[in-house]
């Protein structure tokens, strides 16, 4: 039975799903050294933001197949290190969207009305109504930095509260921004004009200290800034100075450069700053959502199924997965087959996506083809995660083409591998939406389902050749399950595809090519 380690507090709903397929250990608060010591026993690791999954931990996790982050940000996981090791990293991209957006809105209103300090004052026994005079957000301008899932929801609610909306997001279209009611502007203008600025971007090298002394200097002295995205997007030292010197009105932070927040000038500021301990996702609803979402993906991967929100498998989102799932096995089978036909070292693989597969969304089929191609060399060590890197490291050039006009089947896949021993091609499609059929080998039309053991011959189409091959196989005690000839013209070149019940005995291929008319023979195990 598989073993899963849960190293941060996760809702029980997630644990219940994991226990359907694995034995689950919940060990929270582990020190990195303790985690390194035990991680080698586990097939999966489930975390929130508390565990830092470093390269060292990943390397010690020799059995790890999947790391599940119950939340959005995977910046606490060394994703490149996991990818190199073929470990799937999954997250829950939407489970806590509403929770994080509502936290940002709560921060904005709390800042405006000094709610935390007013509350603390009443609890101290005071009744001070002068100190806590606030400001309305109605008709004020909100600048949203990052108009993705959380930013859009914040904008939608803020609009309903009567706020004017500016947004900065270089990766979204003006039309999309307008749909949400935002005017798309550059960061400078947003910093200068907004009364409230809220950050909803990932932390990347480009966004680290995006908000610094220089950008803070552009804000109105009455403006406030909110960060419920990631610590480090704001330069905390510069922010503390800007608030202390009254150059901006205030800030609300849920996330910090280093968590938990240690010694910091931010702590000494008064009612102009609100600090919460990374609570954006901390609602009962969000914790159930992310726990279920990620636990289901861990369960699926442990059962050998693809994950719907893998961050290191290109393009395998839930919508894409639904359509492509049946074709993934086809792509792997064809990759494995063409690799064996090509033999030797493959130098290039041309993947042609045909018919309804000729869309950008079919890119995962290229990865699946590579996984199949590399299977003979790497066996279980190759997967959807590392197939592209492994191919690149082996110098395999991958060419992806599309042909929407190919209409023999709803969708079909054509693979051509060129290697040190020559070029071979295979085409396949699905019959009845799920049964894999080979429809072409080396340009000769056939129609056979692949089987575990197969023999392909390239021969001259002439009387008696099938009989001779049958007798030869019989003399080696090889039982033929099915046989089909593909040819373009009568008595021209042809391909024979045979499904056989057992692996071919050693030495038989040299005998097969001695049969008059047979030029080449290839044995394949799928
Ligand atoms: N505080 C919490 O507990 C909490 C909870 C959930 C998410 N988050 C964080 O909130 C942030 C947003 O999450 P999301 O789900 O909305 O992500 P998302 O991917 O849906 O949206 C991010 C947006 O940022 C934009 N973006 C990327 N780089 C940018 C840049 N340099 N400048 C401007 N825009 C840029 C993208 O185009 C995208 O539209 C993430 O950092 C996530 O980790 C925090
Ligand atoms: O696990 C948490 O509570 C934080 C999650 C949040 O930061 C996220 O990126 O999803």
What does this structure look like?
With about 525 residues, the protein is an alpha/beta fold. It has helices at about 10-20, 30-40, 55-60, 80-85, 95-115, 115-125, 150-160, 175-180, 185-195, 215, 235-245, 285-300, 320-340, 365-380, 385-395, 465-475, 510; strands at about 1-5, 20-25, 45, 65-70, 90, 140-145, 165-170, 185, 195-200, 225, 250-255, 275, 345-355, 395-405, 410-420, 420-430, 435-440, 445-450, 455-460, 480-485, 495-500, 520-525. The strands form four sheets. A seven-stranded parallel sheet has the order 8-7-6-9-10-11-12, sandwiched between helices. A six-stranded mixed sheet has the order 14-13-15-16-17-18, covered by helices on one side. Strands 2-1-3-4-5 form a five-stranded parallel sheet. Helix 14 (about 365-380) crosses helix 15. It is elongated. Nicotinamide-adenine-dinucleotide binds near residues 151, 200 and 206.
Bound molecules: nicotinamide-adenine-dinucleotide, (2R)-2-hydroxypentanedioic acid
Identify the strand order in the major beta sheet.
8-7-6-9-10-11-12
**What share of residues is helical?**
25-40%
Uncertain regions spanning at least 5 consecutive residues: none
Distance between the termini: 26 Å
List how many beta strands DSSP finds.
Answer: 22
The major beta sheet can be summarized as: 7 strands, parallel
- The proportion of residues in beta strands is 15-25%
Approximate shape: elongated
- SS content category: alpha/beta
- Cα-atom Rg, whole angstroms? 30 Å
What is the residue-averaged pLDDT? 94
